[in-house]
Design brief:
The chain is 37% helix and 21% strand. By secondary structure, it is α/β, with parallel strands linked by helices. The protein has 4 domains: 181 residues, 2-Layer Sandwich (Dna Ligase, domain 1), CATH 3.30.1490; 125 residues, D-amino Acid Aminotransferase, Chain A, domain 1 (2-Layer Sandwich), CATH 3.30.470.20; 127 residues, Glucose Oxidase, domain 1; 294 residues, Alpha-Beta Barrel (TIM Barrel). It binds phosphoenolpyruvate (PEP) and magnesium ion.
Length: 760
Amino acid sequence: MQAVVWLEEVGKNDLSVVGGKGASLGEMINIGVPVPGGFAVTAQAFRDFINRAGIADKLFEALSVDVNQESELHRAEKTAKKLIMEAKVPEDIEIAIKSRYEELCKREGKEVFVAVRSSATAEDLPDASFAGQQETFLNMRGAQDVFDAVRKCWASLYGARAIFYRVEQGFEHDKVNLSAIVQKMVDSEKSGVMFSSQPSTGEPLVVIEGAWGLGESVVSGSVSPDNFVVDRKTKNIMSKYIATKEIMIIRDPKTQKTVTIPVPVEKKEAIVLTDSEAIELAKYAEILEKHYGIPQDIEWGVEKNKIYILQSRPITTINNGKKPEPAAESSGKVLLTGLGAAPGVATGIVRLIASGRELDKVKQGDIMVTKMTMPDMVPGMKRAGAIVTDEGGMACHAAIVSRELGCPAVVGTKKATTTLKDGMEITVDGGKGMVYEGRVALSSAARPAAAAGPVGTVATKPITATEVKVNVSEPDRAAAAAATLADGVGLLRIEHMILGLGKTPNWYIKNGKSEEYIDELVKGIKIVADAFFPRPVWVRTLDAPTDEFRAMEGGEGEPHEHNPMLGWRGIRRDLTETEHFRLEVRAFKKLHEMGLSNVGIMLPMVQHVREFRKAKAIMVDENLDLEKIDVGIMVETPGAALTIEDFIEDGIDFISFGTNDLTQYTLAVDRNNENVAGLYSELHPAVLKLIEYVVERCNEAGVKTSICGQAGSYPEMAKRLVEIGITSISANIDAVATVRETVARSEKILMLNALRNKMG
Ligand code: PEP
Ligand code: MG
C-alpha cells in the first residue's frame, strides 16, 4: 500500500486511490495543464489507519443509527469524529505524510503554504460525488499542521450532513473512504472562473470572469467580476466588460489569515486580465473541454504572472452536463404560470424538494421545485438556477430571498409539485412568471452558475438628499449589498440567519447553549455591520411565523395556527418569550461593545405603544445604552400607523414601513395566498394614506422615516415617497441603482418646480 502519491503519479483512472478531485488534478497535470503541485494521502492509507488503530468496528457500529433522529445523528458524528481524532495513527503513515510535505517544500525551495482538501471515494462507485460534504483547510504550513489537517479531513467524513447524505443515497459507510489532497496554495493576485463553452447556449465561446485577489470572491458572487468572451475558433477576444470591483479576498501577510479588504482605488476600475492572459486561459479551457469531451466550469488563479488551473468540472447548466444539442430547443410549450417573483431566465433540471433535508438533490444550476420555500432551504436556493413554488405571492419569503440571491423565481403556480417531474428539463422566466417545457431561447440570459454577482453596482453614484439604503437577509450577500454603495442597511432580516442554523432559539435555550446562540447572532450581524461601517445597519429582531419554525429542530412543539401571518410572530413573540428576546438584546450589546456603533434595533409587527415600552424596559434591564443606540419600529400594522403619535412621544428614533405586511393587514389580503394575489397592491390608496399620515407626523417631530418592504424597490413608490418627504428608502440589492436614479430625478423635479413657482 502506498500511503502517499504525488499528484502527477495519478490520473483519471485512479478514482479509487485518490477520489474524484485527486484524479482530476493528476489528470490535468499529465496533459500539461498548470495545476499547483502536491500529493495525495491515499484512500488506502485512511483505511489502513482505521484498521490498524483498531477503531473500525467501533466506528461503523457508532454510525448505524436512525439518521432521521437529529439527536442520534449528532451522537454518531461526535463518537465517530472523536475516534478518528484520538486514535493513534500508525507511525509509518504519519511519517509518510510529514516527509512528503517536507519533500514538497524542498521542491518549491521554501516551507510552502498548502491547502488540504477532502476527496471521497466509494468502493462500488468510485466517482460518487460527495462534493461539499467534507472539509477543506486552507493556508496550512509546517509538517505537524499539515498532518493535523489531514486527520481533520478524515474526521470530516463523519460530519452529520455527510452521514445523513450517505444513508439517504444508499451508500454503506464502510465502503466510503477518503483521500486527502495536499496541494500548494496559490496566492492569487487575480483569479476567477471560466466556462469552456457559453454556459447558457453551449456556443464555442470561452466566458471568463475575473477579479482581484483569491477566487472565493468570484465563486461566492460577492464581487462584480470583469467579464471576457474569447472565441475558441479564432482566439479573438469578442468582448470585455470592466466592472467596479469593490472588495478582494487576500491572505493577510501579517496574520496569514484569509481576509476581505476593499480594493485599492486605483485598481477598482482597472482591467483584471491582459489580452494575452485571457487568450492563454481560453487555451486551457479548450484543452480541458477537448480532453474531457464535455464543457467545463474551471477555476483559475494568477500568481506572479503565472496562470494556475485550480479545478475543472462539467458545467451543470448546459443540458445537465451533456454536450449541448444546438437544435434541442423546444417550441416553448407553457407548463405553468405563476407570479414572476424574481427576474431572469434559466434552463435546468427539475429537482422536487419536500423539505430542507432533501437539499442535497439540488446541484448547481438545477431548478428547485417545492410547495413553499422554507428558510432552511436557503443553501439549496443558492445553488439553484431558478426556483418554482406552488404557493406564495410577490412578498412571500421565497420571493424576497430569490431576489436577494439574484435567482429567477416563479411563485404561486398552485401545481408545480404535481405537474413537474423530477429530472425533466424546463425553462423558467422569473420576470414573466412562466415555466416552459425543455430548453427555450428567451431574451434574458440565464444566470451563469458562478456569476451571481452583485447587480446594480454603478460607477458613479448620484448624490441624493433622500438616502437610498439596501435590504439584506443573508450575511453572504453583505459584500454584494455594500457594492451597491447604498447609504446603509434599512433592514437586516435575521430570520434566515437563525433559521439557517437549523435549530430554533428555544432549542439553544433548552439545551443550555444560550451563549452559542448569542455568538451566532453576533457572527452573522457583524459581517453586515462591518461591510457597511459607519453607515447605519438597522437590524430587525426575530420575525419568523410559527410555520417557518416548525421545520426546524426544536420546532416540533410550535403551535399550529389558523393564520400564522396574523399569529405569534415579531414583537408579540419577543414579549412572551422574553428569554429569547433578552439573548438578542445581549447580542446587540456585544456588537456595540465591539465598536459597531452603526447597529440599530428595529422592532417588527408592533401594533400598540405598550409593546414598544415593554421592549424598551427589557433593553434597559439588560443595560443597553439607549442614548447611544437607535431604536425604532416597523410600521406594518394599521394600528401602529394610526397611533404613531404615541410612539413618537415615547421616544422612537425611527420608523420603517414594512409594506409587505402593512398591505396585507390593511387590505385583508394574505401575502402568502396565491388565490388573492391579484388584490394585493402596495399602491392601494388606503396604504398610501397610512404612509402619508405617518411621514407627516414623524417629519413634524424630527423622527426618521424609511421603507423596507418590497414596494421600496418600485420606482413609482419611490417617487411618491420622495414627494411626501420620506428620509430614506431601502431597496433590494438588485433595485438600489434604479431606485437611486428615480430618487435623484424626483428630487430634481421637486427643486425645479419649487424654483419655477418662486419665479412665478
Ligand atoms: C414587510 O413586512 O414589509 C417587511 C419588510 O417584513 P417581512 O417581509 O420580513 O415580513
Ligand atoms: Mg413584515
